[in-house]
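From the pipeline queue, job 12 of 40. The input is one protein chain; the requested action is below.

Action: predict structure.
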Amino acid sequence: MYRTILIPLDGSVLAEQALHELPHIAAQNAVVYLVQVIRPTAPEITPEGVSAPSLSHALEASQREALAYLKGAATELRMRGYQVRPEALVSEHPADAIATFASARGVDLIIMSTHGLGGLSKLVFGSVTIQVIRQAPCPVLVVRPS
């Protein structure tokens, strides 16, 4: 049974399927990190230059939205006895952020679902799941979408 688990979520129903694995592998009173990685938005270019306040406000709004979403997901898990810690991370590279976070927090297991992209889509966009598997400091349980 795992005591410290990281579940990256992106707001999709597919990603949330990873939550269903917790009862099967989590220790009682396990610490569960729910993480959403936010990619910074491109700066707004104006005739005067880059509008930094708009960029920072947009990023703050994205972080607030992500935390609200993660706190909603955490409510049910807390009722089941898990210690849930929602975190919104900002990074251009989600897989790097997930692996670094897992290493810094001493995570025992990462559970994430794959979005099932294959063929050309996977080659063009890459797969965050595959990148996490390669970089993670711990085992990664990959849940297939159903």
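Job complete. The chain has six helices and seven strands.
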